[in-house]
Amino acid sequence: MMNAEIYNGAGKLAICPDGRVILTSYAKERSFVFQDGLKVVLYLGGNGESEAVGTDGMEMTSSFCDGKKAVFRYDDVSRGCHAEISFFSEGKTFVKRATVGKGRAEKLYRLTLLSGEVNASLSRGGEGQPLFADDAMWFGTEFPA
Question: Is residue 31 helix, strand or coil?
Fold first, then answer.
């Protein structure tokens, strides 16, 4: 995997070959390190059972970065599912977007966009709630239907 960097007026987002995502705020003079920043977990199931399928268990089949946008595609051929994770900048905001496709007869019950550890104290959070990091930065989630 390549090292990818995206810049805007507020900071820099770096995606490292080991899967870490480093978000640097110029105003706060601080970097936040997400240990599994690329990881997305799909909760798939059928017949009353569900299973967690993470991108860390899928094959990365393509990656792209042009300094404004970075895109990573993961495929799990045996389950018939895939995930595409993109990072880009909108003004002074960095966006992480996941687009997923599920297996043939399975239902997608839930999707986790952030997992792992971060080098900050976190507060609030939960589904639909913003997550605050050291009173310096916050993260929100949009849930399109």
Answer: strand
